[in-house]
Write a structure and sequence with these properties.
Shape: globular
Helix content: 25-40%
Largest sheet: 7 strands, parallel
Structural class: alpha/beta
Radius of gyration: 26 Å
Distance between the termini: 72 Å
Strand order of the largest sheet: 1-5-7-8-9-10-11
C-alpha cells in the first residue's frame, strides 16, 4: 500500500471537453447507438482523463488520480452499487440481482408509469443529484461492479487510481423515506445494514488493485440536513469503526468538502482511517485534534468551486498551517471535486488575454495543486516563480478598468427601493386588470430548443446568417409558440425564448461586467451541461435586453404574455462570480439592471413579468449561522429588482429542485405576486410546507416533471392538482409545469400540456373549486 502523494484532486470533470459523454448518452437513449458504443466512448473518456492528469503532473501509480467517472450522477452510482433502488424498479434487475446500465438510466429518468427518483441540488452547488428512496424494505447488496471494473481497467492501462464513491453516511443522510416506509422513518436508521456492503465493496476494490479509496462524506459539514450534526457525527463514528476495522481493504480517505467539519473533525481524526480531506477554501480546521498521528491530511487549498486563479501564496500558507497539526503528512488538493468547473482555460481563444491571466479552469487547478505539492516537498523557494506569478495576476485584476469603476448606483439606495405596495392592494388591482380564471394555466417560460433553433443560432454566431434573416426566423418561432398555446387553451402565454442560448448567458451577453466562454461546459445533471458566464467586474445594463421580443409576442395575441427575466441571485449562482467584494453588493448591481428592464417592459405594455430565482435555495450556506445574512441580501436583491413595478403589474418568480420548507420564509419575503415551484417529481410534498407556513400569495406547484421524458396522464395530473387544492385555497393556485420546457421535444411537450389543460378543466368543474 503506497502513501498518498503530496498532490491530488478530489474529482475531475467527466462529461468530456466537447461534451462527448452527453452526446453518447443521448444517442443511446434515442436508439441511434447501442450499449457497446456508449461503453466504448465512456472508456475512452476515462482513459483520456487519466493520461491528461499524468501530463499535468499527477502520479500514474500513486493513487493521486481519482476514479470519479459517472454516466449520470454519483449519488445514483452509490445507490445502485449497494442495491438501494425502489421496489418499482426491482424487475429491472438481472437474474443475478445486478443492475445494468439500461436499468440505471430508467431509475434516473423514469419510464411509462414508473416515476424516476427525485432530483435536488447538491449542497450549495449548481449540480443536481438524484435522491435515493430507502425504507425498512430496502435490501442492501452489491448490485453493480462497475467501480471495480473501472479500477481494473485503470490497472490494465498501467495506472493505480483512487476509486471514489459517496460514503454511507452521506448516502443515507441525503435519502428520503420510501413510499412503503412508515411515517417518520429515517433512512439513517439503516446504517448498520448498509455498512457491511461497503466493507464487501472495499474488499473487491482492493482485489482489483486499488490502494486507496475515497469516501465522499460532505453531509458531515452540513447543518441544513434533517439529521443533526450530532446524529451525523455518531453515524460517522459507527460506520468508520466498522469500515476501518476491516482487514481486507485499501487505505481510506474520507473527503468532507464544501464547508468546515467543525467538531466532527475530531470524529474523523479518531477514526481508524488513513486520510482526511478538508475544505480550506470555504472552511477551516481546529487548532488541534487527537489521533492524527499516522494519518494524511489532504488540504483543499485550491478552490474547486470557482474559476479564479486566486492567491497561491495564501493557499500554500494554509497547507503549512495544516502541517503543524501533527499528522504524518500533508497533501495539497482542491477544495471540492473539479466537477464544478470547465476543463481548460487555454481553449478559450475569444476571451480577453488579460482576463484569461486571472483564471484557472480544471487543468490549471491541477497545475496549481502540483506546484503546491512541490512546495510541500521542497520548500517555498522551490515554487517562488509560481507564487509570484499568481500574486502579480491578482494585483493586476484588482487594478484593471471595469472591475470597480464606481459608476454603479448601489450606494444611493434607500428603504423605499426595496418595497412595493401591500400585497392585498396589488392583488385587487391585478384581478381587475388581468381578468384571469380560477387555476390559471401557464408555463414557466422556455419552449423546446429544436435543432432548427440551435442551427440557426450557430449560423448567426458564425456570421453565415444575416441578422435580419435570423430575427425573422426567431419571430416565426414565436408565432408558432403563441399559436400552439392559444390552441391548447393556456391562459397566460410566453414567447418561448428562442433567442436565448441559456437563461443566464443571454443576460450576461447583454450586461457590462460579464464575459462568456466558448467551451466552458459544466455538468448540471445527467446529460445536461451549462456554460456559466464569468462575472468579473461592475455590472450595468447598456440597453434594453428582452423588450423587443416581449413586445412582438404580445402583439400576436389578446391574451397576456409574460415578460421573462432571470433574477439576480440565479445570475450569480449560475455564473462564476467575482470573489473580491461581498456577494450582496454584486447582486444589487445585477438587480438594478433588471429593475430598469422591468420598467421598460411595463412601458411596452407587458402586464405580467416573471423574474426567475430557481437558485435561491442552492446558495444557502451550509452552516446555520451564515444563513440569515445570505437570506437578507438575496431577498433584498430580488426586492430591489422588482420594487419599482407598478401596483397592477403582476410579478412572478420561479424556484425549482430545492427543499422549499427550509426557505419558505424567504420565499414569502420575496413578495412576488405568484411563485411557481417544482412539485411533480416529489408528488406535491411541498404543498404541506406551503400550507403550514400560511403562504397567502399566488402559488403554482408544478404538475409536469420536465426532467423526465415521460408524458404524465390526465388522471395523474388531476390527482396532483386535487392534492394541492386540499392544502391551498383555490384563489391562490396556478397550474404549470415544474420548470421550463427547453430540454424537451415538441411531441412530448404538446401531449403533456394538453393533458395539463384537460386535467385543469376537470378540477375547475368540481363544485368545490368552481370559477
Amino acid at each position: 500500500m503506497t502513501a498518498l502523494p503530496q498532490g491530488t484532486i478530489l474529482g475531475y470533470p467527466r462529461i468530456g471537453r466537447r461534451r462527448e459523454l452527453k452526446k453518447a448518452v443521448e444517442a443511446f437513449w434515442s436508439g441511434r447507438s447501442d450499449l457497446a458504443a456508449l461503453e466504448h466512448t465512456a472508456a475512452e473518456l476515462r482513459a483520456t482523463t487519466r493520461e491528461r492528469l499524468v501530463a499535468l503532473g499527477l502520479g500514474r501509480a500513486d493513487s493521486a488520480i481519482p476514479e470519479s467517472f459517472s454516466f449520470y450522477d454519483q449519488v445514483l452510482d452509490a445507490a445502485v452499487t449497494v442495491g438501494a433502488i425502489p421496489e418499482r424498479f426491482d424487475d429491472l434487475r438481472s437474474a443475478d440481482g445486478s443492475i445494468g446500465l439500461p436499468a440505471y438510466f430508467t431509475i434516473a429518468r423514469g419510464e411509462g408509469d414508473r416515476a424516476p427518483l427525485e432530483m435536488t441540488k447538491w449542497f450549495d452547488s449548481n449540480y443536481h443529484y438524484l435522491v435515493p428512496e430507502i425504507g425498512p424494505e430496502t435490501t442492501f447488496s452489491l448490485s453493480s461492479d462497475r467501480l471495480v471494473r473501472e479500477v481494473e481497467e485503470a490497472v490494465a492501462a498501467g495506472f493505480v487510481t483512487r476509486p471514489v464513491i459517496v460514503g454511507p453516511v452521506t448516502l443515507l443522510a441525503l435519502a428520503k423515506a420510501s413510499d412503503a416506509a412508515p411515517e417518520g422513518f429515517d433512512p439513517l436508521s439503516r446504517l448498520d445494514d448498509l455498512v457491511p456492503v461497503y466493507v464487501a465493496l472495499l474488499a473487491r476494490l482492493r482485489a482489483a488493485g486499488a490502494e486507496w479509496v475515497q469516501l465522499d462524506e460532505p453531509a458531515l459539514v452540513s447543518e441544513s440536513l434533517p439529521a443533526s450534526t450530532q446524529q451525523l457525527a455518531d453515524a460517522a463514528t459507527r460506520a468508520l469503526d466498522i469500515i476501518g476495522g476491516a482487514t481486507d481493504r485499501p487505505a481510506i480517505l474520507v473527503a468532507a468538502p464544501y464547508a468546515s467539519l467543525g467538531a466532527t473533525f475530531a470524529v474523523l481524526a479518531a477514526a481508524p482511517i488513513e486520510g482526511i480531506a478538508v475544505d480550506l477554501v470555504r472552511g477551516t480546521v481546529p487548532d488541534a485534534a487527537e489521533g492524527l498521528e499516522g494519518k494524511v491530511l489532504v488540504g483543499g487549498a485550491i478552490d474547486g468551486h470557482n474559476i479564479w486563479r486566486g492567491d497561491l501564496s495564501a493557499a500554500f500558507e494554509k497547507l503549512e498551517a495544516l502541517g503543524r497539526l501533527g499528522a504524518a503528512s500533508v497533501s495539497g488538493s482542491t477544495s471540492t471535486s473539479l466537477l464544478h468547473v470547465p476543463h481548460d482555460v487555454t481553449e478559450e481563444s475569444a476571451l480577453d488575454p488579460r482576463l484569461v491571466s486571472w483564471l484557472a479552469f480544471a487543468d490549471q487547478k491541477v497545475e496549481q495543486v502540483v506546484a503546491l505539492a512541490r512546495g510541500i516537498a521542497e520548500g517555498r523557494e522551490a515554487i517562488r516563480s509560481e507564487l509570484d506569478a499568481a500574486t502579480a495576476a491578482l494585483s493586476d485584476r484588482r487594478s484593471a478598468p471595469g472591475v470597480s469603476d464606481g459608476t454603479v448606483r448601489t450606494r444611493e439606495l434607500g428603504d423605499a427601493d426595496f418595497a412595493r405596495a401591500p400585497y392585498a392592494e396589488r392583488e385587487a388591482a391585478q384581478q381587475e386588470a388581468l381578468q384571469l380564471p380560477a387555476l390559471p394555466l401557464t408555463t414557466i417560460g422556455s419552449f423546446p430548443q429544436t435543432g432548427d433553433i440551435r442551427r440557426a443560432r450557430a449560423r448567426f454566431t458564425r456570421g453565415e446568417l444575416p441578422r435580419d434573416e435570423y430575427e425573422a426566423f426567431l419571430r416565426s418561432e414565436i408565432d408558432a409558440v403563441i399559436e400552439l398555446q392559444e390552441e391548447l387553451g393556456l391562459d397566460v402565454l410566453v414567447h418561448g425564448e428562442p433567442e436565448r442560448n441559456d437563461m443566464v448567458q443571454y443576460f450576461a451577453e447583454n450586461l457590462d461586467g460579464f464575459a462568456v466562454t466558448e467551451h466552458g461546459w459544466v455538468q448540471s445533471y445527467g446529460s445536461r451541461a451549462t456554460r456559466p458566464s464569468i462575472l468579473w467586474g461592475d455590472v450595468s445594463r447598456p440597453a434594453p435586453i428582452t423588450v423587443d421580443w416581449s413586445r412582438y409576442a404580445q402583439s400576436k395575441t389578446e391574451k397576456h404574455v409574460k415578460g421573462m427575466l432571470t433574477g439576480p441571485v440565479t445570475i450569480l449562482a449560475w455564473s462564476f462570480v467575482r470573489d473580491d467584494q461581498p456577494l450582496g453588493e454584486t447582486a444589487n448591481q445585477v438587480a438594478l439592471a433588471l429593475r430598469d428592464e422591468i420598467g421598460d417592459l411595463e412601458d411596452a405594455g407587458i402586464a405580467i413579468i416573471q423574474v426567475d430565482e430557481p437558485a435561491l435555495r442552492e446558495l444557502l450556506p451550509l452552516k446555520q449561522g451564515d444563513q440569515p445574512a445570505y437570506l437578507d441580501w438575496s431577498v433584498a436583491s430580488f426586492r430591489l429588482a422588482t420594487g419599482g413595478a407598478a401596483v397592477g403589474t403582476q410579478v412572478h418568480t420561479h424556484l425549482c429542485y430545492s427543499e422549499f420548507g427550509v426557505v419558505i420564509d424567504a420565499i414569502r419575503a420575496l413578495d412576488a405576486d405568484v411563485t411557481s415551484i417544482e412539485a411533480a417529481r416529489s408528488r406535491m410534498e411541498v404543498v404541506a410546507d406551503v400550507a403550514e407556513a400560511g403562504f397567502d400569495h399566488g402559488i403554482g406547484p408544478g404538475v409536469y416533471d420536465i426532467h423526465s421524458p415521460r408524458v404524465p396522464a390526465v388522471d395523474e395530473i388531476e390527482a396532483l392538482l386535487r392534492r394541492a387544492a386540499l392544502e391551498i385555497p383555490t384563489r391562490q393556485l396556478w397550474v404549470n409545469p415544474d420548470c421550463g420546457l427547453k430540454t424537451r421535444g415538441y411531441d412530448e411537450t404538446t401531449a403533456s400540456l394538453r393533458n395539463i389543460v384537460d386535467a385543469t378543466r376537470r378540477v375547475r368543474e368540481d363544485v368545490n373549486v368552481a370559477v
